[in-house]
Amino acid sequence: MMRKREPSAATLKARQMKSAARLYAVQALFQMEASGQPLDKVRREFLDHRFGAEIDEGEAMVDGDIDHFSAVMEQAVSWQARIDQMTDRALVEKWPIARIDPVLRALFRAAGAELVAMDTPPKVVIVEFCDVARAFFPEGKEASFVNAVLDHMAREAKPEAF
């Protein structure tokens, strides 16, 4: 019987960096909406001041995968109308995307970018962005809500994966 190989340290580091890139992308998309700043300005700020920045003495923020961060940002902006429509269809009729928390809106746009325009498997997108939801809302039920909405969006964007 073959044993499943444990991922290498390099593979684990790459996964961690992609996870960090997703979290940064949600923060950046939120900032873009809140401030009205364009993609290039917000991306530059994140790359110059957030990636690997020191938060407390001796404690640095995790480096993110710059290419993944940039791709998620660009695709979220390019496909925003389609992603927002998918999100609306996944939400209860009384809760259009404009009425949900702006952090969740940014999260759905980032996740939607991976579902619509990138090769990330839908199940990975769902798991990763539920983790992001937990990072922003550690006390609440938002992760379950995110899971349900992203499952609906993933089935619409990539039905062949289910």
Overall description:
Helix 1 crosses helix 6 (122-136), helix 4 (80-90) crosses helix 7 (142-157) and helix 5 runs antiparallel to helix 6. This protein has one domain (14-157): Orthogonal Bundle (N-utilizing Substance Protein B Homolog, Chain A). Strand 1 (54-56) and strand 2 (59-60) form a beta hairpin. The protein is globular and about 45 Å long. It starts with 8 loop residues before the first helix and ends in a 5-residue tail after the last helix. The chain has 162 residues and is mostly helical. It has seven helices and two strands; from the N terminus they run ααββααααα.
Main pleated sheet:
2 strands, antiparallel
| Total of helices | 7
CATH class: Mainly Alpha
Provide the CATH architecture. Answer: Orthogonal Bundle
Poorly predicted tracts of residues: none
